[in-house]
Specification:
single chain, alpha/beta, TIM Barrel, eight-stranded parallel β-sheet, two-stranded antiparallel ribbon, 11 helices, 10 strands, globular
Length: 326
């Protein structure tokens, strides 16, 4: 059994999940089946990942073959930026449910605090960041949708039963504090980038204070971003002496040390891999503990190094300056 973290709803989110970002659509059905066979019960999906229908095909085979039942799994997905308007939240969730082949989500998150102009499903799905990719100078087109409008629609999803828990991604403490002033249903989970180079200590402490579960994406730091030109190959936290020493003492890999560090500090983690051996490796982190000294040494690696920063990648990739963090 994979340990879990309790949510205010009484639900339990497994401490380790499989992140589906950058899983090739053609690979997704088999990856899903391999992951379930390896013991995964937590899957982190999103409209924008462009592989929900293929992931759904993997879930279907797993259900039909008796590998697992729907209620055995924790499935998260995310509302994309172009669907923030209240009238578009429900259809966006329905599309995700249809693609994944399930009748409810365990968790639905607002992916970014960046409302973009609506793009109909019939025009392009997933819509991505550009409003019109075929334009001579394509850019993002922002929409005037206040976050409270989006959140009210998310709350209706929760009341409808299509979604068991609702939450947010990529928000700051100030954004969360504002949300809590009007939320009738408080966010159950915050998902943000977190790893030893970006420990997010204040944000984590604030979430723990407010009883909001914290999920760390990109728990290996730069690995997912080198191929995108958003990180250099020589800034791998896996090679840090503090990580290597803990790996040597425990007989574990540096990757397992990073995941254990994340879980031991109270966060769920959603590493991505399509490799069956790595799938098993990433779950094998519950038979050891890091010492207080090892936890402190790894936490002291913090550089406030954020790889997934719209303030940089939106301008570089989508010709639009779009800061979220200071």
């Amino acid at each position: 059994m994979i340990p879990s973290f309790a949510l205010p709803s009484g639900d339990q989110i497994p401490a380790v999940g499989l992140g589906l970002w950058k899983i090739a659509p053609a690979d997704a059905p088999k990856v899903i089946q391999d992951a379930i066979a390896s013991g995964y019960r937590h899957f982190d999906a999103a409209c924008d990942y462009g592989n929900e229908a293929e992931a759904g095909a993997g879930f279907k085979v797993a259900f039909q073959s008796g590998l697992c039942k729907r209620d055995d799994l924790w499935i998260t997905s995310k509302l994309w930026n172009t669907y923030h308007s209240g009238e578009h939240v429900y259809p966006a969730c329905e599309r995700t449910l249809n693609d994944l082949g399930v009748d409810y989500l365990d968790l639905y998150l607002v992916h970014f605090p960046i409302p973009l102009a609506y793009v109909p499903f019939s025009e392009r799905y997933p819509p991505g960041w550009f409003h019109d990719p075929a334009a001579a100078s394509p850019k993002m087109e922002f929409a005037k949708v206040p976050f409270h409008e989006t959140w009210r629609a998310m709350e209706e999803l929760a009341r409808s039963g299509l979604v068991r828990n609702i939450g947010v991604c990529n928000l700051t403490t100030g954004m969360i504090r504002d949300l809590l002033t009007y939320a009738d249903i408080r966010p159950s989970v915050l998902q943000v980038e977190a790893h030893p180079y970006l420990t997010q200590d204040k944000l984590l402490r604030y979430c723990q204070q407010e009883k909001i579960a914290f999920t760390a994406f990109s728990p290996f730091g730069s690995l997912s971003y080198v191929s995108l030109g958003m990180a250099s190959a020589n800034e791998s936290v896996l090679l840090e002496p503090a990580v290597m020493r803990a790996a040597q003492r425990t007989g574990k890999t540096p990757a397992q040390i990073l995941l254990r560090w994340g879980v031991q500090r109270g966060t769920s983690v959603v590493p991505k891999t399509a490799n069956p051996a790595r799938l098993r490796e990433n779950l094998a982190i519950f038979d050891f503990n890091l010492t207080e000294e090892e936890m402190a040494a790894i936490s002291s690696l913090n550089r406030n190094r954020r790889y997934n920063d719209p303030g940089f990648f939106c301008e570089a990739a989508f010709n639009t300056f779009c800061p979220v963090y200071e």
